[in-house]
Amino acid sequence: MISISEAKPADFPVIREIAHKTWPVAYGAIISKAQLDYMLKEFYSDATLNYNFTHKNHRFLLVTENSICLGFASYEHHYLGEYKTRLHKIYMLPESQGKGAGKLLIAAVEKLALENMDNIISLNVNRFNTAYNFYEKLGFEKVGEEDIELDFGYLMEDYNFEKRLL
Questions:
Q1: Average pLDDT score over residue span 22-35
Q2: For the CA atoms of 33, 34, 35, 40, what is the dihedral angle to 10 degrees?
């Protein structure tokens, strides 16, 4: 049975492990190995995960099946002071994709958003990552594009997506 639970800082090693398993599959053909390694190190270090949790109010959900963690999501309510919940991250192990667990994670974030009086879910997705099709199937609409410059001349080329909640 697939279940969703709230993650705590003690779960950060599991989150990091999933990121390290999923990113090469998701981004290996899109960005250089050097950029991929840099971003994993920067985004998933203990310091960054703890800072996001304690100072930026990022929350994490884990999705498991038979006590095996299949993936995670990270989100933040009232993003930029608006009635939006920001889905910062959602990653599923490649072998778990297609089981509906990602949809369950999105549904859980939507439910939490509504409980916290947010009426929009927003997210960014790499313009060259076909995962944007997944979001469109779930009712998200492309509302813009954004290039985010990182250190060493690295660039994140993203679509902005939003979904209005009922």
A1: 95
A2: 80
Handedness of CA 161, 36, 56, 108 (dihedral sign): positive
| Residue labelled with tokens 């979001």 | 135
Half-sphere exposure of 71 (CA within 13 A, CB side): 23
DSSP 119: -
Mean pLDDT of 93-101: 91
Judged by DSSP in three states, 131 sits in coil
Sign of CA dihedral 103, 94, 63, 120: negative
Report how far residue 26's alpha carbon sits from residue 8's, in angstroms, rounded to the nearest whole number: 25
User: Do 155 and 147 meet the contact criterion of CB atoms below 8 Å apart?
Assistant: yes
- Percent of all residues in the chain with a pLDDT value above 70, rounded to a whole number: 100
- State which H helix or E strand residue 121 sits in: strand 120-126
Q: Residue 164 is inside which H or E element, if any?
A: strand 155-164
pLDDT score recorded for residue 99? 87
Q: Which residue segments constitute the domains of the chain, with CATH numbers given?
A: 2-164 (3.40.630.30)
